TrEMBL record:
SUPFAM superfamilies: L domain-like (SSF52058). It comes from the Eukaryota. Pfam families: LRR_13, LRR_8. InterPro entries: Leu-rich_rpt, LRR-SigEffector_domain, LRR_dom_sf, RPS4B/Roq1-like_LRR. It comes from Nicotiana undulata. Transmembrane segments: none annotated. Residues 27-113 form the Disease resistance protein RPS4B/Roq1-like leucine-rich repeats domain. The lineage of its organism: Eukaryota, Viridiplantae, Streptophyta, Embryophyta, Tracheophyta. PROSITE patterns: LRR. Keywords: Plant defense. This is Disease resistance protein N-like protein.
């Protein structure tokens, strides 16, 4: 394979007995997959210079370490799929030289503890999925990823608390932020989260904070907010004006029904969790009717 200069596509997925794969020529290669090769522990030696837009998939392989030399000189990779690589402990800092990288997926890399400090150098990165890893403190440089559209963390063990760095008016293109089951407590979200001017979808399901940053109301583009199973949340913050959809537990909906009716003018859908019987729905219906009636009375009084 080291001599196959015209090889365009090499797919070795599900070769479960593959132990050694010494080298591959990448001068013409556009796609390389060693996914599901669970016994392959070493990445192959690269011959030749990679073409632009090459994709590399290594999900569920047994590879323990990514050689820094690959990323130091082969800089045209656009997509890295490293999902569920159980033996992967760290990413080499040279991965941050991949200026063409658009998508980096490492969910399920259960031993991966950190990203390189220079992550902010990935100028063209649009998708970063790091769910079900041990990364609880992303490097502060991550906010420099101004083309990033989708960012996902979460799925931590008990006792590991996630902390998101101050936004500092960065992440200007971010549309989806998922921090589901991240063991977030008060202070885990930055006070300036409201400066994420392009954010449309914010998933904070299953976290342990009691309060949310007040600046959430400044998320002018936000359309969907998921606060399901946030059982320690004491009250809803003032919600963004353009919010269309809210996922929240029943007790919090009951507690905040007046604000939801009177202040959230664009809210079209509220999905309730822990609504296990008709009594809950009856209570909500009664509270909703009472607040709507009160609102109509206020409007009539104002008109007169």
């Amino acid at each position: 394979l080291g001599c196959c200069k015209k090889l365009i596509r090499l797919n070795l997925s599900f070769c479960s007995r593959l132990i050694r794969f010494p080298c591959v020529n990448v001068e013409s290669l556009k796609y390389l997959s060693v996914g599901e090769c669970s016994r392959l522990e070493k990445f192959p030696e690269i011959h030749g210079r990679m073409k632009p837009e090459i994709q590399i998939h290594m999900k569920r392989s047994g590879i323990r370490e990514l050689p820094s030399s690959v990323f130091r000189y082969q800089t045209h990779i656009t997509e890295l799929d490293l999902r569920s690589m159980d033996n992967l402990v760290a990413l080499p800092s040279s991965i941050c030289r991949l200026k063409s990288l658009v998508s980096l997926n490492v969910p399920g890399c259960s031993k991966l503890e950190r990203f390189p400090d220079e992550m902010g150098d990935l100028d063209n990165l649009e998708v970063l999925d790091a769910r079900h890893t041990l990364i609880s403190r992303p490097p502060s440089s991550i906010v420099r990823l101004n083309k990033l559209k989708i960012l996902m963390f979460g799925g931590f063990r008990d006792g590991v608390h996630f902390e998101f760095p101050p936004v500092a008016e960065g992440l200007r293109s971010l549309e989806t932020l998922s921090l589901k089951n991240s063991n977030l407590i008060d202070g885990g979200l930055p006070e300036d989260i409201g400066s994420l001017s392009s954010l449309k979808y914010l998933d904070l399901t299953g976290n342990n904070f009691e309060h949310l940053p007040r600046s959430i109301v400044q998320l002018g583009a936000l359309r969907s907010l998921d606060l399901s199973y946030c059982q320690r949340l004491t009250q809803l913050p003032e919600l963004p004006p353009e919010l269309n959809e809210l996922h929240v537990d029943c007790h919090m909906a009951l507690k905040s029904i007046h604000a939801l009716v009177t202040k959230s003018k664009k809210l079209q859908r509220v999905k309730l969790e822990y609504a296990q019987n008709d009594t809950i729905y009856d209570l909500l219906a009664h509270a909703l009717f009472r607040n709507i009636s009160s609102l109509r009375h206020d409007i009539s009084a104002s008109d007169s």
